[in-house]
Design brief:
Length: 144
């Protein structure tokens, strides 16, 4: 290899080594971290709001109706009372539903049933559904 080519290749390789950390760091931004924090908040189910005028929650216009938001099942149990519980059955994480005629929360997978308060009525589940606080303000529910 000629001396001239050696120095040219050496300079090109060096500049690539110097720019590589900049390129890799650009893949991680503060926005990415913010997104993770938001996801963590959703996983913790803190401060979730529900716009009751949204078509996504039309079922909540009727007493006995229910809807899902994230991992939460929201039940309208009276004109002014809404209940929020984890929608994930404590047996094997299937999504529970709500039966307004029996006022129970059945799991379609293996037959567990829960009360509106989340307590186990019959198994195989042995642990209650996690219950959240719900505040109604105008047309907005805040679940925490
Ligand atoms: S996952 Fe609900 S009863 Fe098994």
């Amino acid at each position: 290899m000629e001396r001239r080519h050696f120095f040219r290749n050496f300079a090109l390789g060096g500049s690539l080594l110097l720019t590589a950390p900049v390129l890799f760091n650009s893949c991680s931004t503060d926005d990415d971290n913010g997104g993770d924090e938001n996801n963590n908040n959703n996983n913790n189910n803190t401060g979730i709001t529900v716009d009751l005028t949204s078509p996504d929650f039309a079922n909540l216009k009727t007493v006995g109706g229910f809807a899902y938001k994230g991992d939460i099942i929201i039940i309208r149990s009276s004109e002014t009372v809404y209940i929020a519980l984890s929608k994930l059955c404590t047996h094997s994480q299937c999504t529970v539903t709500y039966n307004s005629s029996t006022q129970e929360i059945p799991c379609p997978c293996h037959g567990s049933k829960f009360t509106k308060e989340g307590a186990v009525v019959n198994g195989p589940a042995t642990s209650p559904l996690k219950k959240y606080d719900v505040k109604l303000s105008g047309n907005t529910l805040t679940i925490s």
